[in-house]
Design brief:
Length: 148
């Protein structure tokens, strides 16, 4: 159902950001689940791939503390990545294995395809305006978009 502009302008941003978040998260998580990885596991694998010397568990948790309420909840995901031999833990640092690197590659391609599908018909300019407006609204509500 397409809403007209007059009706939309009076609607709460909180509802629409919640609806977008719920829909987009379900889409991305479903696509990642289809290749055998959760979104938080993807975040950790990606963080490890980007690091030259791996990361500690504490670094992984701290980095993702503000992301969708995960933080310390990453511990089971990290444990599973180690159990599946996608990450090795040596001297307190998580390092990616060849199997982990292969899954990371599939997940990165999945994320790229997800973004392409979700951004279909949305110009970079529209996307940037949307994010800037949301950041301003976060600040207006007393939040810090830099912490998110």
């Amino acid at each position: 159902m397409q809403h007209d502009d007059e009706a939309l302008v009076g609607q709460p941003a909180g509802y629409w950001t919640w609806a977008a978040s719920k829909t987009l998260l379900a889409y991305a998580r479903g696509r990642l689940a289809a290749i055998g990885i959760t979104q938080p596991q993807w975040w950790v694998l990606h963080q490890v791939v980007l690091s030259e010397n791996g990361v500690t568990r504490d670094e992984a948790i701290r980095t993702h503390q503000a992301r969708l309420d995960v933080g310390a909840g990453l511990v089971p995901d990290i444990d599973l990545l180690v159990e599946r031999a996608l990450l090795l833990e040596t001297d307190g640092r998580l390092q990616i294995t060849d199997e982990g690197r292969a899954l990371h590659g599939r997940a990165a391609e999945t994320q790229r395809a997800n973004r392409e599908r979700v951004h279909e018909g949305v110009s970079d300019e529209e996307y940037l305006i949307t994010l800037r407006v949301l950041q301003r609204m976060i600040r207006n509500a007393g939040g810090d978009p830099g912490l998110i």
